[in-house]
């Protein structure tokens, strides 16, 4: 039987009706419902909706995407059921946002995204429209006229659309990670974060004009010094301005320190690295994709610090994200130059210089020193206390161990790109810091 993509997407969309039941279901019954969905994806769909399996799924005998759909709903229930509207919102973003994005993109998406030819502007717009509206309506129904957020339904509405925009942006990236996992967890986490933050703290934001001026000044200097490309200049200016808004000059100093330190160590010994075929492309110039991969996690933590009533842990996570990024850059660049015996942590075998996921003693020691510098700078500008310095360093070390393992497995297997690895690395550094704090 011929595969029908439209029918597959309607099968993807309709289970959101089950999210409406969260208004009444107790935890155990909600979990049982999620398990039922998982069993349907693993076995029932193949029997009932036979022409909704892609050819490669037919060959394997199962659809991994339909299985991960059920797993994601179970994870949402386990993580956020104390605020069940969060589960409903994440579910709606997965079903309605992702489903209508694919339908619109496949049928009407002629103009593709410049950073991902598999996605279209129409598809991304449909994600925001249907995902945002659907998440709002489903969450409002589950709340049953009793909104838990401080500003009521207006806040719930913009939160839904902001989560949809975030998930649409995430889905548009060529990360090679199943978006049945990334979309509901990212969307649910964002909605949950908003529910525990005080948006009235936005009045504490720092000056937009000052942040834009500083970012433009640093970006212009970096562009003429051939540290960034035109896209890197634009992306860095946006990120720098937003970080200044959230954390003021203290946050901007941390961003600038990472950028300057990372750029200098990339340029160091560039001719030798180029001769070995392991140098950064474009003469070491960083583009917008590099800025997004290395700085997005830090930007998220900066925004959370602005909105949190107790911002210290998020400020520490912000510093940890950039300490992790600098650890990664320094250990990689120095290790490629001076690392005598690079090894893979997954096998402990010596490998050639430049192998994805390889680490060396020399590079790791320099990475630790770089993270210490970043942590001490965070303390120096008043973002973290002395007691958090070792926490930040420990988080950066753990994150880079994880990054080495992912690089030698998922990246080498082609399941995730370098930018995806870098984003997960900095995000894990921030998360490890939150857990340690």
What does this protein structure show overall?
The structure is a single chain. The protein folds into two domains: 5-196, no CATH class; 201-436, no CATH class. The protein has a two-stranded antiparallel sheet. A two-stranded antiparallel sheet has the order 3-4. α5 crosses α7 (152-172). The chain has helices at 5-13, 27-48, 55-60, 64-80, 84-108, 121-143, 152-172, 179-195, 208-224, 230-267, 270-276, 288-307, 312-338, 361-380, 389-411, 418-436, and strands spanning 112-113, 116-120, 343-344, 358-359. The protein has 437 residues and is mostly helical. The chain is globular and about 60 Å long. A hairpin with a 2-residue loop joins β1 and β2. The protein has 16 helices and four strands.
Write the layout of secondary structure elements.
Layout: H1 5-13, H2 27-48, H3 55-60, H4 64-80, H5 84-108, E1 112-113, E2 116-120, H6 121-143, H7 152-172, H8 179-195, H9 208-224, H10 230-267, H11 270-276, H12 288-307, H13 312-338, E3 343-344, E4 358-359, H14 361-380, H15 389-411, H16 418-436
Antiparallel strand pairs: 1-2, 3-4
Helix pairs in contact: 1-5, 2-4, 4-5, 4-8, 5-6, 5-7, 5-8, 6-7, 7-8, 9-10, 10-12, 10-13, 12-13, 12-16, 13-14, 13-15, 13-16, 14-15, 15-16
């Amino acid at each position: 039987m011929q595969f029908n993509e439209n029918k597959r997407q309607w099968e993807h969309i309709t289970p959101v009706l089950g999210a409406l039941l969260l208004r009444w279901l107790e935890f155990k019954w909600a979990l049982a419902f999620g398990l039922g969905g998982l069993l349907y994806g693993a076995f029932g769909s193949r029997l009932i909706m036979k022409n909704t399996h892609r050819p490669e799924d037919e060959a394997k005998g199962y659809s991994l995407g339909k299985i991960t759909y059920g797993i994601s709903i179970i994870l949402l229930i386990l993580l956020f059921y104390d605020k069940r509207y969060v589960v409903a919102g994440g579910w709606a973003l997965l079903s309605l946002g992702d489903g209508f994005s694919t339908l619109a993109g496949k049928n009407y998406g002629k103009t593709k995204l410049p950073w991902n030819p598999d996605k279209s502007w129409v598809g991304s717009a449909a994600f925001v429209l249907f995902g945002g509206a659907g998440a709002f309506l489903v969450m409002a129904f589950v709340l049953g006229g009793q909104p838990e957020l401080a500003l009521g339904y207006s806040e719930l509405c913009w939160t839904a659309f902001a989560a949809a925009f975030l998930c649409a942006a995430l889905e548009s990236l060529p990360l090679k990670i199943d978006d049945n996992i990334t979309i509901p967890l990212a969307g649910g986490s964002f909605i949950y974060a908003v529910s525990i933050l005080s948006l009235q703290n936005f009045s504490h934001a720092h000056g937009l004009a000052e942040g834009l001026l500083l970012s433009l000044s640093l970006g212009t200097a970096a562009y003429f010094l051939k540290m960034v490309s035109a896209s890197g200049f634009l992306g860095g200016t946006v990120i720098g301005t937003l970080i200044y808004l959230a954390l003021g000059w203290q946050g901007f100093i941390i961003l600038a320190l990472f950028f300057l330190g990372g750029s200098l160590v990339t340029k160091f010994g560039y001719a030798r690295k180029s001769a070995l075929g392991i140098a950064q492309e474009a003469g070491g110039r960083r583009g917008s994709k590099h800025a997004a991969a290395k700085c997005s996690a830090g930007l998220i933590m900066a925004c959370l610090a602005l909105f949190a009533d107790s911002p210290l842990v998020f400020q520490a996570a912000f510093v940890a994200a950039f300490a992790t990024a600098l650890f990664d850059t320094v250990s990689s660049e120095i290790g490629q130059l001076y690392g005598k015996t690079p090894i893979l942590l997954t096998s402990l075998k010596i490998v050639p210089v430049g192998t994805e996921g390889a680490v060396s003693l020399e590079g790791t020691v320099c990475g630790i020193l770089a993270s210490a510098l970043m942590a001490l700078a965070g303390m120096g500008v008043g973002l973290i206390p002395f007691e958090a310095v070792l926490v930040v360093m420990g988080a950066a070390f753990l994150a880079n161990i994880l990054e080495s393992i992912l690089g030698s497995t998922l990246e080498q297997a082609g399941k995730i790109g370098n930018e995806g690895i870098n984003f997960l690395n900095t995000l894990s550094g921030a998360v490890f810091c939150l857990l340690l704090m």
